[in-house]
Amino acid sequence: MSTATATDKRKAPAGERVADWADGRLGIYSLAKSNMRKIFPDHWSFMLGEICLYSFIIIILTGVYLTLFFHPSMNEVVYHGSYVPMQGVRMSEAYASTLDISFDVRGGLLIRQIHHWAALIFVAAMLVHMMRVFFTGAFRKPREVNWVFGFLLLVLGMFTGFTGYSLPDDLLSGTGVRFMEGAILSVPIVGTYLSMFLFGGEFPGHDFVARFYSIHILLLPGIMLGLLVAHLILVFYHKHTQFAGPGRTNNNVVGMPLLPVYMAKAGGFFFLVFGVIAVISAIASINPIWALGPYIPDHVSTGAQPDWYMGFSEGLIRAMPGWEINLWGHTLVLGVFIPLVIFPLVLAAIAVYPFIESWVTGDKREHHILDRPRNAPTRTGFGVAWLTWYVILLIAGGNDMFAQYFHLSINAITWFARIGFFVGPVIAFVITKRICLGLQRRDRDKVLHGRETGIIKRLPHGEFVEVHEPLSPGKLHTLTAHEQYKPAEIGPTVDENGVERKVKLMEKLRVKLSKGYYGEDHQIPKATAEEYKEIQSGHGHH
Amino acid sequence: MSSQDIPEDKHLPTEQGDAHHGGVAVADDPFADPGLPAHKPRIQDIDERAAKRSERTVAMLFTLSMLATIGFIASYVTIPVDKIVYIWPFGHVSGLNFALGVTLGIALFCIGAGAVHWARTLMSDVEVADERHPIEAAPEVKAKVLADFADGARESDIGRRKLIRNTMLGALAMVPLSGVVLLRDLGPLPEDKLRKTIWAKGKLLINQNTMEPLRPEDVAVGSLTFAMPEGLEEDQHDYMQQIAKAALMIVRIQPEDIKDKQELEWSHDGIVAYSKICTHVGCPISLYEQQTHHVLCPCHQSTFDLSDGARVIFGPAGHALPQLRIGVNDEGFLEALGDFEEPVGPAFWERG
């Protein structure tokens, strides 16, 4: 071909020459071949994960800036900066430098507030993103490992947040650190040792700000960065999930290419997130440490609350009765230690769920089509039960605030939380499941009888009927595309030779759970083609 | 309402009986996947003027961003860092913080809005399907990998030379111990540090408000006084650690109202001194109800009855606040008659 020879002769444009150079060393063409036009499906809920990613980047950018001015030291200084109410007050260098960032460094307050707001949004976005993944079943094979990565990011995000807001050494955060120290002391046998080692002696000591600093800016974010990269690589490798719809199958992914559409949409979204956080930080003050004063162990303010993502641990400790057992010269501080144990268990419940569900279903296939939450009523029920649990603990964690704003008795709120901790999730589970089943019935109805149009028609003999419009083929497909499992059965207990085998306990449990997930009354059988044809061909009774 | 929205009779569950040869919906499998719907063109795809309008919108957003960045720099240079301005509805705020945040926000947001608008209105929105491939390797790949692994393992002889394997595992298991040992100097051993405070016999009670030694007549019924031991100074190196244990709260209760016998014995003329540090997780207790002599910890709402041995009457605390035995010295000042008899603050394993 003549054009080919022409291409050979012309000098390649500069961009191409740079790419050639890079390809010879990094192999970028092979990488781009499979990724540059990679297809991403479109759904609003798929951008929740992007909010996490972008707020994480914003946190790193602003965090690096803050390290330029923050002094992670507990050396005592007397403040002589420009914030008049604190002049002459003794405080740690950490607190003093945070005042400087807020009042003397131009733009320092803005960056501090962006950092804090982005952290709040980061953890919130992770939780909501995980809710999306959970309720649509996106955690199923092959994505269980990525679910665990995401879970670890959530937990590490919480602790990075905690170590971060403890750094300014203000009265509020110091109270939070004291709470943590008290919780550590409750650990049987090693509690006092852990506390002494963490604080370099007795609380508060002179070390924890510097130690939290290296944990906050290096150790935890370093691990998180690794997990985040792995998380994204897996998202690329697995390709994104999609909802069922015309043309969308388990073997394809339908959407628009990375270059240019998602480059622009996702890239643009970063700026949208950053822009919104910047404006929030301009107009809404967060953690005004100057109003709280420096930390002194015998001072406290009322209404002390942790950042929201630590609120449920606060709830656990507030709702728990103060049990203490003294035996053989030792104290078992159950009133603090039990919440300390439940705290990771509440979180671990999320982490292990995909493995429990795949054990119950026994399904070894890959799943790339998302479930609508209603089509997995038991899973959805569990999810809402967990959230109910979480919200009840948040209420318990803010019992003083709720008492104050709603003029309620603090004792009543605490008792509500104590009972709600056990009863709330059960009620939520039952109600959610019923709602899901109701929605399934409505889907079935819509498929078989069509959409209610709201148009009333009078028949020749005087009867009024509502006109039902049949659904489009695409809609019919979408509403019937979900799979419905059959409940597991205990296999034959007698083999071909008549020898009886013992049914294992785990097998019994699995069958019981499976019946609870997929048995009669736990899912509504979806419309079959036969039913549809019969109704469509029969006489129009709705 | 367009004509498409009104169902025509032939779509209704039918009296005419034409359903079998009718629409696609009643083909062999009525729920079959009809395939990707045809692309619906946007206004920008068919009308160049609309496309131009979109182009101008995107360019305007990018320009706005540039202006906002200039505004950011101008604010940084011109607005003094300590300038307070009134901005409705936010009230009195730092002018610089407000200007920088809003301009930065606009500069960023407009880039994002421009890019998204560009993607949504001008870039192709034709949906494309990509094939998925199973994540699992093909059986022959798996077989090859297993064979390679077997080769490698055999060549290393790790299975046969057990001595090498076991000593290597031993060495690898032991080497992290050095790292653990190195953590020893993170802090001292607990010993009895949590059992003792600097209170001792004869130490005066210093009022933390006035920094003067307290006399019994300084403590009125219904008031809550915070005190610390004589000799503890704010600029002392270990002030924080000491005050975290020694902080005291003092109230006066009519002696006949004191229900606990030991409390009465350890008090002086109705003046009782209790540890201020909550026995739950160590917050300082600061809320006092005069009528009932209840004190409340503001952190987790543990409530103690100071007229009854400071026993817990509500909340998550596990045991009563420790009481400090007090008396009056020759010069008429309140003094401690010893240290607390039990550890103050949160409970721990060795507390007993």
Which descriptors apply to this entry?
heterodimer; A: 542 residues; mainly alpha; two-stranded antiparallel sheet; 20 helices; B: 352 residues; Rieske Iron-sulfur Protein; 2 domains; four-stranded antiparallel beta sheet; 7 helices; 15% strand; extended; disordered N terminus
Report the radius of gyration of chain B as a whole number of Å.
39 Å
Query: How large is the share of residues in beta strands of chain A?
Result: 5-15%
Helix count of chain A equals 20
Largest interface: A-B, 141 and 113 residues
Order of helices and strands of chain B: HHEEHEHHEEHEHEEEEEEEE
Main sheet: strands, sense, barrel of chain B: 5 strands, antiparallel
Write out the strand line-up for the largest beta sheet of chain A, numbering strands in chain order: 1-5
If you consult CATH, what is the topology of the largest domain in chain B? Answer: Rieske Iron-sulfur Protein
Q: Span between N and C termini of chain A?
A: 67 Å
**Unreliable residue runs of chain B:** 1-26
Q: How much β-strand is present in the residues of chain B? A: 5-15%
In terms of quaternary structure, what is this? heterodimer
Number of domains of chain B: 2
How much helicity do the residues of chain A have? 55-70%
What does this structure look like?
The complex is a heterodimer of chains A (about 550) and B (about 350). Chain A has about 550 residues and is mainly alpha-helical. Chain A has helices at about 1-10, 15-25, 30-35, 50-65, 95-105, 110-135, 145-165, 170-185, 190-200, 210-240, 260-285, 290, 310-320, 335-360, 375-395, 400-405, 410-450, 475-480, 505-520, 530-535; strands at about 40, 75-80, 90, 240-245, 250-255, 325, 330, 370, 450-460, 465-470. A two-stranded antiparallel ribbon of chain A has the order 1-5. Chain A has a two-stranded antiparallel ribbon with strand order 2-3. Chain A is globular. The mean pLDDT of chain A is about 90. With about 350 residues, chain B is an alpha+beta fold. Chain B has 2 domains: about 45-185, no CATH class; about 205-350, Rieske [2Fe-2S] iron-sulphur domain (Rieske Iron-sulfur Protein, 3-layer Sandwich), CATH 2.102.10. Chain B is built from 7 helices and 14 strands. Chain B has a 5-stranded antiparallel β-sheet. Chain B has a 4-stranded antiparallel β-sheet with strand order 8-9-10-11, with no helix packed on it.
